[in-house]
Amino acid sequence: AQSVTQPDIHITVSEGASLELRCNYSYGATPYLFWYVQSPGQGLQLLLKYFSGDTLVQGIKGFEAEFKRSQSSFNLRKPSVHWSDAAEYFCAVGREGSARQLTFGSGTQLTVLP
Amino acid sequence: EAQVTQNPRYLITVTGKKLTVTCSQNMNHEYMSWYRQDPGLGLRQIYYSMNVEVTDKGDVPEGYKVSRKEKRNFPLILESPSPNQTSLYFCASSAGHSGANVLTFGAGSRLTVL
């Protein structure tokens, strides 16, 4: 069975600073990888996804993520954080043929300091 | 607007009092799913449905029931709620049911069982 680890429960950065959120997955084949964001009081919104091809994927709101097969990682990055990026971020892995769809990580809460 | 609508958004109830959380989507999606979100645990799947009259258990189905009589609706039923079902619940849908499909989430329903 697949699993997802987000080792950082809470990260605090200053506005304008760069950001990297870590995600490690465990899955035997090439997974489908996702990052979702949950703003306060909202549902989850897709930031970006990786299925195949170019290992650096671009998403909405200036986010990007890099798939590294050798490290089983799919870290999320943003070069300059805005106060509106404060939210909880979830990494998720899906697999072909699985009706259960996604396995989510435990989430990383991002606080942005002015 | 394409969306998943959940009701109620907030609910406080008492142990043993049956309740239903409704979920409706307007995108003609085949796949629908219920998750619960608890601190430090991320999102865990309760039940899912691949189409009308087709439902199956997720990772944490105990204490819950679902039905899928119409394509657009997927209610979550707690026959006899207990305090350990206090949680934030999300309904989600997608066009297909493989791990490559992007989920659209509702805004969430916060349930407190006293």
Properties at a glance:
heterodimer, A: 114 residues, mainly beta, 6-stranded mixed beta sheet, 4-stranded antiparallel beta sheet, 0% helix, B: 114 residues, 7-stranded mixed beta sheet
Could you characterize what this model shows?
- Chain A has 114 residues and is mainly β.
- Chain A has strands spanning 3-5, 10-14, 19-21, 24-26, 32-38, 44-50, 56-58, 64-68, 73-78, 87-94, 102-104, 108-113.
- In chain A, the strands form three sheets. In chain A, strands 2, 5, 6, 10, 11 and 12 form a six-stranded mixed beta sheet that branches. A four-stranded antiparallel beta sheet of chain A has the order 3-9-8-7, with no helix packed on it. In chain A, strands 1-4 form a two-stranded antiparallel ribbon.
- In chain A, a hairpin with a 7-residue loop joins strand 10 and strand 11.
- The radius of gyration of chain A is 14 Å and the shape is globular.
- The mean pLDDT of chain A is 91.
- By secondary structure, chain B is an all-beta fold.
- In chain B, 0% of the residues lie in helices and 50% in strands.
- Chain B has no helices and eleven strands.
- In chain B, the strands form two sheets. In chain B, strands 2, 4, 5, 6, 9, 10 and 11 form a seven-stranded mixed beta sheet that branches. Chain B has a four-stranded antiparallel beta sheet with strand order 1-3-8-7, with no helix packed on it.
- The radius of gyration of chain B is 13 Å and the shape is globular.
- The interface between A and B is medium-sized, with 30 and 29 residues.
